[in-house]
Amino acid sequence: MMMIFGASGFLGAAMVNKLSKKHFVLAVVRPQSDISRIGLNKNVEILRKPEHEWATLVMSFKPEIVICAQWQGVGKLDRENQDIQWSNVIAIEAIAKKALESNCMRFVALGSQAESAESHLLVPEEYIASGETFYGKAKSELVQRLFSIFEDTTTQLTWVRVFSVYGPMEHRDSIFSQLGQALIDDKTFHIEEPTKKWSFLFQDDFARGMELILERMGGADIINLANPQLIEIQELPRFVGLTKISKNESIKQASAGFFPIITKLRKLGWENRVSIEIGCKLTVDSMLQD
Question: Is the distance from CB of 48 to CB of 33 less than 8 angstroms?
Answer without folding.
Answer: yes
